[in-house]
């Protein structure tokens, strides 16, 4: 698992290094300004998307947890009433 995360972080780091090298190597200021504007405008949407996905995951896991508790309690009730007969 950690190897996968480390590989992913290494790829991300290399991509960011490539982008920063592109910014510093090519001195086309209008292109840099355009790219920076696009990145800064897209960043809040990306963070909101990540937040939304984590909230969805939280609610799905919560639903599974409570469904399991409910089904387990039904199973226990079934066992109790079966013993009574």
Description:
The protein is mainly α. The protein has one domain (2-84). The protein has helices at 2-25, 29-84. It is elongated and about 85 Å long. 0% of the residues are buried. The mean pLDDT is 84.
Characteristic key phrases:
membrane; 85 residues; transmembrane helix; transmembrane; mainly alpha; 2 helices
Topology:
Blueprint: H1 2-25, H2 29-84
What proportion of the residues is helical, as a percent range?
over 70%
Please outline the major beta sheet. Answer: none
Integer tally of domains: 1
- Count of DSSP-assigned helices: 2
The ordered H/E elements are HH
Unreliably modeled segments:
none
In total, how many beta strands? 0
- The termini sit apart by 51 Å
Strand content: under 5%
In terms of structural class, how would the helical and strand content be classed? mainly alpha
Mean pLDDT: 84
Q: Shape, please?
A: elongated
What is Rg?
Answer: 25 Å
Keywords: Membrane, Transmembrane, Transmembrane helix
Transmembrane segments: 30-50, 56-75
């Amino acid at each position: 698992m950690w190897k996968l995360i480390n590989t992913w972080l290494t790829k991300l780091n290399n991509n960011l290094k490539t982008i920063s090298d592109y910014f510093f190597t090519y001195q086309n200021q209008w292109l840099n300004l355009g790219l920076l504007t696009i990145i800064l405008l897209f960043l809040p949407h990306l963070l909101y998307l990540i937040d939304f996905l984590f909230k969805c995951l939280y609610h799905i896991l919560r639903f599974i947890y409570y469904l399991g508790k409910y089904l387990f309690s039904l199973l226990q009730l079934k066992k109790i009433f079966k013993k009574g007969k």
